[in-house]
Design a protein that fits this description.
It is a single chain. This protein is of the alpha+beta class. It is about 30% helix and about 25% strand. It has 20 helices and 31 strands. The strands form seven sheets. Strands 10-9-11-19-18-17-12-31 form an eight-stranded mixed sheet. Helix 12 packs antiparallel against helix 13. The chain is globular, with a radius of gyration of 27 Å.
Length: about 750
């Protein structure tokens, strides 16, 4: 029996809605400060080259130029290892990606920054900086970078294998293995074994707002930053680390953010703007161009994957094996770990081995993109599962149901699931009107896919203060990308027994709230929502004390339910008691600080109907349904929006989007005109089916919902294209030329 709630599950208007639709919300590029200078970045025209000499004299002499910065202006990083929220990393790598020193490792790699009285002067000055390069051969894919004799990006990068550093200097930063059972024995028990190879291209998150940073290195020594970011504390800690400052000396104010999807976690501009501000004595604003966003911020990794699954004649999977080589870009950190965790996560297979390789290549250093690593992996695994189902004559949903992960299933990286909704997602697919509808035309096909994202917890902080009119002010540190101000406020409102509209949420700077981790990993409604729950519970505890004071009783004797305090026939609504806080002891402020366990992974499915033009290979998505176990939908409309948004991005990834690069490492489609993201004209309405299997690890059953929905679409599309055109595609994107080449080869 489901729990009944008063606020959770309703659809109030989002708290920031009016400012967003009227244009009053302030984004990063909107900040204006007295004496503001404009910055520009000089970027490398080469994908791989040694920097022999940098001469900034002509730039410095240009009228209007107030400061120039290079990597030489940063304090020496040495070999210090730091963890700034993305795992242990040499500081020299983080700093080197902000401004190159010694070598450039991708076209677009930042070399120097300029601050001037106008953006045009800054750009002209940047072009006057003279750089002498020794151009080196480049390597652009993981398989090529792993070959003997491949150009080496980092002479100091020693391969780590199975957790131990080796003497090998090559482009493989890490080789790890996850294993359960005995895969070799499992394959011996199989009646059918399918093994296939898959290639996926580099793709970008496609957020509309470019990266930006405005920094004032103030006379008091404090560095103040205004930026659009998914993690103000990541910006604070990274900037402080690069500039060798105490974190207390850096204050970050997060502005509104025009999309991120994981791509706005890393820091690119803030330390450069800080140095320019210190040199000039004035605030400096830098905003990336769209070309810079594509060429110099973090896309998701391209990959090479081999996936192998063995099955009995009845469809039972006996073993699985995978080899994943992911492109890290210029610096280690290819998201291959999550890919390896997720590739077979939807299935209960007793014998599994997964090898992962983190490989540096001459492309921009990769960043997270909505379930990073999992979409590549699911494309491979779900394509193999579909082929097994076809060869065994079993319905695609039924074979997945037969092997579906459930409570107690062990994932290859070790954890055993608590209550999860994989089975329920598949049952919803099978029962859906879409799955049972006729295809309705020639050259059409229907495919399904499922996927998993484990979600994360991480620290969050929240404070709530009570107003005399019965409303409350909620202060939090999580950047709001998809409506989390409201989903967090709703959880506080549920505890307090007041309408969501009576909670006034604010996202504040790093001085004004306790440490809060990034808006990412599907953690915000889960973790910061939990912090809000704790802060609200603290409010209730304190208000019980005030009621007890008025009624001359003990706080333990005061009951609270549905926003009303009561004892022995006496009762007082929340708002009435709030009006008396001045006479019962003064302000009431609740606090919540959590680092929650109990994270509940989310399973998602997709049903895709496509029509493939047999003469051109053009694929039209004619119907698409997203199905996801969300635990508990706090605000169903926002949940549906997340499912639709992730699905659209997955469709773009599957059919259109790629970094189209030539042999010199130059991206040839670095504009939104040429980088083909799907628009409303390319897509049907994305249908949604919300499945609710409450997460036992959260007070309201919340699971993160922002990421799992991007995982299954490319696989579902590939399986649909197979039915429509009779070919199995193992390369992303599945663009018309790829489809026609497969048809002709057949």
């Amino acid at each position: 029996m489901s729990t009944q709630y008063n606020v959770i599950g309703t659809r109030p208007i989002r708290h920031d809605g009016a400012d967003k639709v009227t244009g009053r919300a302030l984004y990063g590029a909107d900040i204006q400060l007295n004496g503001l200078l404009h910055g520009a970045i000089l970027r490398s025209p080469h994908a791989h080259a040694r920097i022999k000499r940098i001469d900034t004299s002509k730039a410095e002499a240009l009228p209007g130029v107030k400061a120039v910065a290079t990597a030489a202006d940063f304090p020496a990083a040495g070999d210090k290892i730091v963890d700034l929220g993305e795992g242990a990393t040499p500081l020299s790598y983080i700093r080197g990606n902000v401004l190159a020193q010694g070598k450039v490792l991708y076209r677009g790699h930042a070399i120097a920054g300029v601050a001037a009285t106008s953006a045009h002067i800054a750009e002209e000055a940047a072009s006057l900086i003279e750089v002498e390069y020794e151009v080196l051969p480049c390597t652009l894919t993981a398989p090529d970078a792993m070959k003997d004799g491949a150009p080496i990006l980092h002479e100091d990068l020693h391969m780590q294998e199975f957790g131990k550093k080796t003497d090998k200097v090559n482009n493989v930063a890490d080789h790890f293995r996850f294993s359960i059972g005995d895969a070799e024995k499992g394959f011996e028990e199989a009646d059918l074994i399918i093994e296939r190879e898959f290639h996926t291209s580099t793709v970008h998150q496609g957020y509309i707002e470019p990266h930006n940073a405005t920094v004032l290195w103030n006379n008091d020594g404090r560095v103040q930053v205004w930026t659009s970011t998914q993690g103000s504390f990541v910006v604070r800690d990274t900037t402080a680390c690069i500039l060798d400052l105490p974190v207390a000396q850096v204050k970050v104010t997060p502005m509104e953010i025009g999309g991120g999807f994981g791509g706005k976690i890393p820091v690119y501009l803030e330390p450069v703007a800080a140095v320019l501000s210190k040199k000039s004595g004035r605030p400096v604003k830098i905003v990336m161009t769209r070309k810079d966003v594509f060429e110099a911020s973090g896309p998701t990794p391209g990959s090479y994957i081999r996936a192998k699954i063995g099955a009995k004649r009845d469809g039972t999977f006996t073993a699985a094996q995978a080899y994943l080589a992911y492109e890290a870009g210029a610096y280690p950190g290819a998201m291959v770990g999550p890919g390896a965790m997720c590739i077979f996560a939807a299935y209960d297979i007793k014998n599994v081995t997964v090898d992962g390789y983190d490989v540096v290549v001459n492309k921009p250093s990769t960043a997270a993109y909505r379930a990073p690593g999992a979409t590549n992996a699911a494309f491979a695994a779900e394509s193999v599962v579909d082929e097994i189902a076809e060869k065994l004559g079993i319905d695609p949903v039924d074979i997945r149901l037969k092997n579906a992960a459930k409570e107690g299933t062990q994932r290859v990286d070790g954890p055993k699931y608590r209550r999860v909704g994989c089975v329920e997602v598949l049952q919803a697919i099978k029962a859906s009107e879409h799955y049972n509808a006729p295809l309705g035309g020639p050259n059409r096909g229907r495919g399904i896919g499922i996927g998993f994202w484990f979600n994360v917890g991480l620290p969050s902080s929240c404070t709530i203060s009570v107003n005399a009119d019965g409303s409350v002010n909620l202060v939090e540190g999580s950047t709001d990308i998809g409506g989390t101000r409201t989903s967090i406020a709703m959880q506080a409102a549920e505890v307090l027994g007041i309408p969501a509209e009576q909670v006034h949420p604010s996202v504040v700077d790093t001085d004004s709230i306790g440490f809060t981790a990034v808006t990412g990993g599907s953690r915000t409604t889960f973790a910061t929502g939990w912090a809000a729950i704790e802060a609200a519970r603290d409010i209730v505890r304190q208000m019980k004390e005030r009621a007890a004071k008025l009624w001359e009783t003990e706080p333990a004797e005061v009951n609270f339910e549905n926003g009303v305090f009561s004892k022995n026939g006496k009762s007082m609504p929340f708002a009435e008691l709030a009006s008396k806080i001045g006479e019962t002891g003064g302000p009431i402020v609740g606090r919540g600080a959590v680092n929650p366990r109990g994270v509940g992974g989310s399973f998602a499915g997709a049903i895709a109907d496509v029509e493939v033009d047999p003469e051109t290979g053009k694929t039209q998505v004619v119907r698409f349904t997203s199905i996801q176990d969300v635990g508990k939908a706090i605000h169903p409309a926002y949940v549906e929006g997340q499912m639709q948004g992730g699905s659209v991005q997955g469709i773009g990834w599957g059919l259109n989007e790629e970094y189209y690069m030539d042999t010199t490492g130059t991206m040839r489609n670095s504009s939104l005109l040429d980088y083909r993201m799907p628009t409303a004209l390319d897509l049907p309405m994305i249908e949604t089916i919300i499945v609710e299997v409450p997460n036992p690890g959260h007070p309201f059953g919340v699971r993160g919902v922002g990421e799992a929905n991007i995982v299954p679409p490319p696989a579902a599309l590939a399986n649909a294209i197979h039915q429509a055109a009779g070919v199995r595609l193992r390369t992303l994107p599945m663009k018309p030329s790829t489809i026609m080449e497969a048809v002709w080869a057949k």
